[in-house]
Every structure is written in C-alpha cells, then in structure tokens.
Amino acid sequence: MNADDFTDEAREIMARVEERHKGDRVLDAGALRALAHPLRLKIYDILSQYGAQTASSLAERLGESSGATSYHLRALAKHDLIREVEGRGTARERWWERPVGGVSFAHPDAMRTPSGRAASQMIMSEFFRNRNEQLMRFVGAGVRDLSDAWTESSMISTATARLTPEQTAELAHRLMAIIDETVDRYRDQQGDDVRPVTIRGDVFPLPEIGDES
After folding, report:
1. What is the pairing mode between strands 25-26 and 83-89?
2. Cα separation of 62 and 125, whole Å?
3. Spacing of C-alpha 110 from chain mean position
4. What's the rounded Cα separation, in Å, for the pair 131 and 151?
5. Element (H or E) spanning 49, and its range?
C-alpha cells in the first residue's frame, strides 16, 4: 500500500492516528514475560479500565490475598508496566496506576524467539478471554440490571463487508480516530452518572470457505 491508494481525507485521518500512536510502548521480552501471568494480566486490565487501585482493593475484587496482589503489583512495576500514584496513599497502603498510552505486545525482537512468541500469544489469549467474559456478562445480566439509559445507549454490533487491504486499512484508521477522540476528550471525566465504558474494534479478513482450520 502507498499514499496514492487513499483519498486526501483518508490520508489525513491515517496520518493523525499514526501521529497519535507513534509514542505507544512496544513491550520488550522482559515486560512480556512479566505480564504473561493470568493474575498479573487481570490486575493490569483492572488498572487500565477502572483506574488506580491498591493491593487491598484488587485483592477484594479478584478474591486473592493482599499479599499476592502486592507481589504481582511490584512485579509489574519492575518493568514500568504500572507505577505508584504520586501523593496518594501511605507507606502501608500504596495506590497503583497504569501510565496513560497505548501498548503493543508484538515486539519484533521478542517475536523472533519461541518464548517471546509464547508470552505474546498467552497475553493476547487471556486479554480477549477477559474481554469476552465482560461482553457475555453484559449480555447475560447487564441488560437486565442496568438502567434504561445505559441499555439504550450501549451497542453490540457486527457486520461484514467485501474490502481490499487498502479499504480495510482506511476503515480501521477511521474507527481508531473516533475512539482516540473519545478517549482523549473524556479521559478524566468525573460525575454521578459517569462509569467506565469498554470500546472494542475488530477489523480483520475472514478465511475463505474451506480454509477455516
């Protein structure tokens, strides 16, 4: 693909998205290995979605001891995957947060080794398993338990289109641009009716019929 394959509007959107994400962290082999643990990944995910937590609040949410969550928090912090919140907490009860910014699990050097590929695959599998559990929990109970305002404003949708690689790239960048704008605008929003809302975008080619294996 090259720039001539896209309209001026598409090139502008793609350039904006790429500029926005050029500082995203690509996790090295050490960070991948540190994150490749089911409980650590859940802790990292909670900090990403719900904001700063303590070892005690994580232990209560995950059904673990605070000693266990404290240990895994320190392991994540060792590789700068999370950090202590400055000016908050005490020596006995520290608050932890995930730094703002995107991350990639596909470090080129790490992907050249069996252990690096295994760690990356494990992280991606657990990440999407956790996300799928959230989706199914919403489908099974959230629709019933949430207010009408939340159920009417939520969306679960799938569609299929016949696209070229260039059209697929343009679509992915358009969706990412909308997501980036929303995240940046409302990142620190507070209020009585404000809560974390998960946003998920999947754009990928389907296998040909007969090639599903």
Report:
1. unpaired
2. 19
3. 20
4. 18
5. helix 38-50
pTM, 2 dp = 0.85
Is residue 54 a contact partner of residue 200, using CB atoms and an 8 Å limit?
no
**Residue located via tokens 């641009």:** 177
Distance CA 136, CA 117 (A): 28
pLDDT, tens digit, for every residue of 41-64?
Answer: 999 999 999 999 999 999 999 999
Q: Is the confidence at residue 1, as pLDDT, over 70?
A: no
Burial annotation 35-54 (CB, 10 A radius, 16+ → b, else e): bbbeebbbbbbbbeeeebbb
Range ranked top by mean pLDDT from 15-29, 67-81, 96-110:
67-81
Residue ranges and CATH numbers for the domains of the chain are: 25-141 (1.10.10.10)
